[in-house]
Request: fold
Amino acid sequence: MKKICVVVTARPSYSRIKTALTAIQKHPKLELQLVIAGSALLGRYGNAIDFIEKDGFEIAEKVFMVLEGENPTSMAKTTGLGVMELANVFYKLQPDAVVTIADRFETIATSIAASYQNIPLIHIQGGEVTGNIDEKVRHANTKLADLHLVASEDAKERVLKMGENPEMVFNTGCPSIDLAKEIKENPKLDFNPIEKYGGVGEVIDWKNGYLVVMQHPVTTEYTSARQDVLKTLEAIHELNIPTFWFWPNVDAGSDGTSNGIRYFRETVKPKNIHFFKNMEPNDFLRLLVNSKCLVGNSSVGIRECSYLGVPVVNIGTRQNRRQRGSNVLDTIYDKNEIIKAIENRISSKSIVSSTIYGDGNSGEMIADVLAETNLTFHKTIMY
Amino acid sequence: MKKICVVVTARPSYSRIKTALTAIQKHPKLELQLVIAGSALLGRYGNAIDFIEKDGFEIAEKVFMVLEGENPTSMAKTTGLGVMELANVFYKLQPDAVVTIADRFETIATSIAASYQNIPLIHIQGGEVTGNIDEKVRHANTKLADLHLVASEDAKERVLKMGENPEMVFNTGCPSIDLAKEIKENPKLDFNPIEKYGGVGEVIDWKNGYLVVMQHPVTTEYTSARQDVLKTLEAIHELNIPTFWFWPNVDAGSDGTSNGIRYFRETVKPKNIHFFKNMEPNDFLRLLVNSKCLVGNSSVGIRECSYLGVPVVNIGTRQNRRQRGSNVLDTIYDKNEIIKAIENRISSKSIVSSTIYGDGNSGEMIADVLAETNLTFHKTIMY
Amino acid sequence: MKKICVVVTARPSYSRIKTALTAIQKHPKLELQLVIAGSALLGRYGNAIDFIEKDGFEIAEKVFMVLEGENPTSMAKTTGLGVMELANVFYKLQPDAVVTIADRFETIATSIAASYQNIPLIHIQGGEVTGNIDEKVRHANTKLADLHLVASEDAKERVLKMGENPEMVFNTGCPSIDLAKEIKENPKLDFNPIEKYGGVGEVIDWKNGYLVVMQHPVTTEYTSARQDVLKTLEAIHELNIPTFWFWPNVDAGSDGTSNGIRYFRETVKPKNIHFFKNMEPNDFLRLLVNSKCLVGNSSVGIRECSYLGVPVVNIGTRQNRRQRGSNVLDTIYDKNEIIKAIENRISSKSIVSSTIYGDGNSGEMIADVLAETNLTFHKTIMY
Amino acid sequence: MKKICVVVTARPSYSRIKTALTAIQKHPKLELQLVIAGSALLGRYGNAIDFIEKDGFEIAEKVFMVLEGENPTSMAKTTGLGVMELANVFYKLQPDAVVTIADRFETIATSIAASYQNIPLIHIQGGEVTGNIDEKVRHANTKLADLHLVASEDAKERVLKMGENPEMVFNTGCPSIDLAKEIKENPKLDFNPIEKYGGVGEVIDWKNGYLVVMQHPVTTEYTSARQDVLKTLEAIHELNIPTFWFWPNVDAGSDGTSNGIRYFRETVKPKNIHFFKNMEPNDFLRLLVNSKCLVGNSSVGIRECSYLGVPVVNIGTRQNRRQRGSNVLDTIYDKNEIIKAIENRISSKSIVSSTIYGDGNSGEMIADVLAETNLTFHKTIMY
Reply:
């Protein structure tokens, strides 16, 4: 039995790995050691831990490591503390391999704590391209990792170009598509979002169609986070379409974004927007698949929505050069441009689904690769 | 004036940057902020701080961050603590750019603390190839860095292949060659090593020729460090040529190497070996240029010795695929093979100098690039 | 010039030391090194740093050290991180003495970082008695400290009984009384609280008299914090007197208290309560001196209000055996008891001012003691 | 079953608790959770962990927390790191009570991590008096602790005077006396120290009587540690009696002491001294009971030797006002005074055993008190 230790540090990462966790747990040759860390433990960022426990996963260790401040200095210190804490955790759990997910700033803590202790490191979802500190972190994770499970052909090629061993790079697709597949097969919106999740703001009438907005601060430009979110708020307010708006997750600058939202709510009191903090992943996907359009800069727009065929207005540079389907229309932080883009998406007839990020069996593919690949912690660049 | 913050974390790194420090200090457009951290502050690892202060550099901050243990877990925790401490330091110094040097395990702490705080990161001596955790750390540093000052054409090509922007990659050579140049121009051994540096072991007669040995543990194989060093000790003992042996610097496993040396000294009491803990860089180069051969796995053999034309026996995988001159003969950890290799080098007539790693003005080139390049903390992979 | 380093870690501590800071700054034999740390730097806890800078103090160092979580584990880890960070700060500032204030959980970090580095430690406001972790922390600070500046005769006796050297224990009163004195001399409420500070909740009519409530969670009972605050909310709601309510400062359990407040606001929507996050200390005192009664468990009720002659209803165990004036009526967490106690205080004719905690020149007394006392870091228990 | 978590942070602490560990393990109402931390894990300080495992104890957690540097700053930072790490450990183990032992600098980390998490804290061996940072740490531990198990009547009175609850203070004696009792009953020196433990220095002829020296640096005077140890070395050298000398344990300044010893060895090459790094506790006691005299400043001289009736020369202030038997003669750091004192002790006929620190069943008494006492984490000073 190979012991596979997976570290989940944030709410969105959980959706990116959930079906793989299930598949690892079920696999006869694998044993799952699940570590929940960072903002995934905190109420302020949506209590991902509650969803995870409700889904029946056993938690091997919890790691409190987030420093208050929500600025670049506290991001760095959170990461440093994460290295120290996760070094202890891996020393104790003695896993045969550690999995680090994607490119959030604190994921490099997992990578360092594992690789420095000579534990084979597996990086999920490397090789993509965005435009800020995530970009640096993702590729640094690639260079620390021994095995790469990427989510698209485009990403695979990029990891290979960076000098990784072709025998250790697999396109498994993204487990988030597995969840999307279930929803696609049975897309009915079977709950009342406001009744089930509360939230704040107006009780909007969403039954005749609605928008969903999810906009995160872009770390390296965090002073402008407040200004950026105000553009989107103004556009949504002017459009006057019923809208569900999700608060951003933890990041330097979430203060800027959150402040912008709070300021707009108190001064403008928009009648067409209802705000949520969090939602169970399945419910969120169901909400998306029934929406007119997703607006913002979330990677969900690039990934799950491409598979689901949901129209997306992607604003700004956060998703940068990530491969995208025809469902996505890119625009900039300008009220009128955002309005125009949303109108375009809503009226478009030709939006189709794509399998760029997998066809819905990614979790099992990941478990199989983990079970069958000979893991090692030695590597050398190929050129 | 651009404020350039350079972080030196270990004795050997100082030689790799010294002439650049001087050039930055003198440059009219640059201001030096020198941070000394990690083992460079500790007596057990040769008190690099003393040499640095003696050379007249002003220290902006000292960072104590080394955890006891000398095992992979303490390496990871030292790195995590380094991130936390250096985050504070950069927050306070507010540099315009931070320089991280080469590939020691703790150098990634500098990289994270700078890049996460949106400070342009400059990586010195990326793009080389070796064979253990250094390999992973070096390339991860490259992916976190915005500007790359590499030491050879070979390294430059590799950094470009990894997707870095050609406008931000410069082959400046290695500042250690600048020091070597001074020595080459005036190579006389003008001091008595044992009188000046004490050390332990036999007082050998070095006046008719001697070997120098410097062997570091290879981190990912640290349990075998003790066994490896014993092979070299046996070979040197059997050859019975007067030898100066340098203790290894801090690393997981230095215990293994140090234990091996101590054990051999106490049981075999070799009459032909004298042991040093440390030496001023210039004196060390002077010792090398007058030696018959350098034995071990130090990168000095690959770099400075190639410029100086000193014969080198390089043992094991530590230097791996680093570009090397014709002065180097590679061998394995086997007593007889080491003896054969040393005999080959000592008797070779054809060893010539090379400028693979620069021609002696690297420090000034580095300062000029820093002054003239437009520094930024945004980057995106080129493909 | 003696360098006196004062560490302020929270908003309420600042009021307890402000006039002493001014007096140290002005004293010809003293130099102030002001360190702002912990929640005093964070927006979520009232941005004390902004008031401090506005008051014209120069900040020598800022120390980010608060871990997210607001539970006992994060309190402990915040303290540990504080020790590490403050050790660096004192190493760099090289003060002749360090001042730690009162008994918040993180103040022991200051005490350890100073005393372990052989820097004389001065403890302000030891010797009092309360009823939770503060109680342990306060007396542990006393045992780590070399000089004790206490705020009442009662406290002085207690510190002496604990075995401290009588030559090193001074009753200087509390600097918060100095601020109260200024207000007492000129008590007019010269601003409109809601216009100046915003806040949330109903715009109450406060012109004909109002209550002030300030209730903090009691750390060792943090699961009951929510329930406790609901009792007070119910009592205030039923009384239906216009009320200004202040959110609690950072502590494990503030989530409980804050949740209770938020829940009550949303479900009951009390028409007579307006909520503030923070207020400038002088404005806060002015608000108090013009109020009918202060309700809750804040030490302001015991101290400043005793000097100001403001009626106080003190609920629960938080202030425990702290010496109190006749202005204070103690009660328990029971709606009816709280109502009765408030009615008693409001109707009482006989509330007079007392000087238990000083007569208004505490700041200068503190500076004088610091200047004249021979500071040392050696001590031995007196019995 | 009450879960009792005991934290051992150093070699000497283990002897102070060993029989209590055994008794806790055997007690039907108690479950032992043994945490080994700090220098007890490190080879440089005698690998206490090896002895503990050899004695058959199961280790619940290992905590690496020692920062390199051996100066006051690294002592403080080690303690801060200890708080962070032990907070995790207690969060995970969820003990019903935590035991902190005596007064080493890092023991306060255990106290904070437990008390801040509302876990009842038990302090072993409070109430004694010494003369440096240990003095402050010990009494601060007392003020953080809920239950006090002291080692002498004198100590008990002092803890009570400090305001602790008489129902929570027990004189259990010191478990180290339990070990001494076994040896006293069978005192034959049944091993050859040099054969069994190696060590360095001359092979002395100890069969006709020998001295034992154990001298630790006194933290607050660490610059004079080197000078102090040289006085003792000179005295022992001049006396020319065969001597076993033990290296100091980890402390700021051990560098000073260790340097002094190394310097003396290399320059003077004393023919009558053999040096050991460590010895199993039982062997050490056997060595003591057969010696002419113990010299230095170890608390073993005050405790075990008083029970064993071994003559002791106690030098300097380290043991200060600790209660002592008639076996101890105090002196100062002066070569001639030390010589005189040793000669006095060696020739004294009247040295008798005493039971100040217990009569040999301390371990069981401790376990019984732990089992029978109602543990709580609430306390208030008694006056």
Remarks:
- Chain A touches chain D at residues 61-63, 81, 84-85, 88, 91-92 (CB under 8 Å).
- Residues 2-174+358-372 of chain A form a domain with the Rossmann fold fold (CATH 3.40.50.2000).
